[in-house]
Amino acid sequence: MTMSTVIGVDIGGTKIAAGRVSSAGRIDGLRRCHTPATEGSTAVLDAVVRLVKEVRGTTPVVAVGVSTGGIVDHATGTIVAATDLIAGWAGCGVADELSNRLGVPVSVDNDGNCFALAESRLGLCAPTTICVAVGTGIGGGILVDGRLLRGINHLAGEFGHLTVDTIARCSCGKVGHLEALAAGPALNARYLAAGGTASSFQAAIEGSAPDPVTRRVIWEGGRILGRAIAGPVLTLDADLVVLGGGVAEIGHPYLAAVESGLREALPHQRPLRVRGAAGGTNSAVIGAAILMEQR
Length: 295
Description:
By secondary structure, this protein is of the alpha/beta class. It is globular. The strands form three sheets. A five-stranded mixed sheet has the order 3-2-1-4-7. The chain has two domains: about 5-115 and about 280-295, 2-Layer Sandwich (Nucleotidyltransferase, domain 5); about 125-275, Nucleotidyltransferase, domain 5 (2-Layer Sandwich). The chain has nine helices and twelve strands.
């Protein structure tokens, strides 16, 4: 199967992105649309079908790969569990539904795993690489000798649910999880509580000169994340950490803070690299298309 004929789709809580992906990981014809998340799974799948047809145009397409939030059974393309970010998403047979409607094979996986697959294609991966995506939530994927580690319950790389010292409630409904302390909404709340002058943390980091409050929130959020993922880094003896997602788009100040947190938490100094995602915010689209090579 040639990658030039595969469309990658990333279903997020607020937007859906799709594009034709080449074997080198280059995206052509990228399109986006709003995710009708509150309208339920049928409305979301309707939006995906419309977007894929728009991207496809007259180009022959032989397969579609889909990246999505939630716990995904990759073998069946079914959403095993999900938060209420998309209404009725849990239990949805995404692969079968889309394949029946589009007339081509469809493969589905968690967005963190797709992010990791994209980095394995685009980036300078190491023998053991931990990929962490920080946005509205926190997810990720684990690569060992270039192969994706999914786990028997499809939970490998769910770093957002690592236990940290917080009483804040996570999007999964439980308290004490990293996502509730270090994901985008948590950083936004910390910024506003600290007296930030912009309308939101997002507006603040997009400004030309971040103020002291913004710099402090970036530093604190990154250090918290770094200290939390030190456990998986140590357990797997990983030698590379790749950071992606909207929050990681902040760039060097955030990456430096994460690395500082990692160094503080690890028991001794050891070779370890921390870098940003080679695929940027389009990593999940690229990784979704790569899924089809594994069928």
